[in-house]
Amino acid sequence: MQGKNGRAIKNLSHCITIGEKYHSLPDLSRAYFETGKFLSDPSNKYKELNGHPAGYYLEKAKTMFEEMDLQWDMGEYRKFESIRS
User: Fold this and answer.
1) Calpha distance 72→85 (Å, rounded)
2) The predicted structure's pLDDT at residue 85
3) How far is CA 25 from the centre of its chain?
4) Residues 20-45: pLDDT tens digits?
5) Quick one: CA torsion of 2, 49, 79, 67, rounded to 10 degrees?
C-alpha cells in the first residue's frame, strides 16, 4: 500500500480491529461508516477491505446506528445516501 489512500485503508482497518476487540460499538459503527464511504469513492483504487465491499460496511453502520439510536449519525448516513443516489 502506498500513498494517502493506502494509509487511509490501513488506518480504517486498524480502527475496525480495535473497535471489535474492545466492543466500542459507537466508535466501531462510525469506523464502518467511514470505511463504506471511503470504499465507495470512485476516485480511489480500493473497492474492498477484508473481502467486503462498501455496501457491507455501510449496511453494518446503518444497522448499528439504528440499534443504538444514534440520531446524529443516522442523519449523516442519510445525507451520504442522498448524495450517493
Assistant:
1) 20
2) 75
3) 13
4) 999 999 999 999 999 999 999 999 89
5) -140
- Where is pLDDT greater, at 43 or 85? 43
DSSP string, 1-65: --HHHHHHHHHHHHHHHHHHHHT-HHHHHHHHHHHHHHHH-TTSS--EETTEEHHHHHHHHHHHH
Q: What are phi and psi of 70, to 5 degrees?
A: -90, 85
Q: In Å, how far from its chain's centre is CA 47?
A: 12
Q: Once rounded to an integer, what is the mean pLDDT over residues 1-29?
A: 91
Element (H, E) at 67: helix 54-67
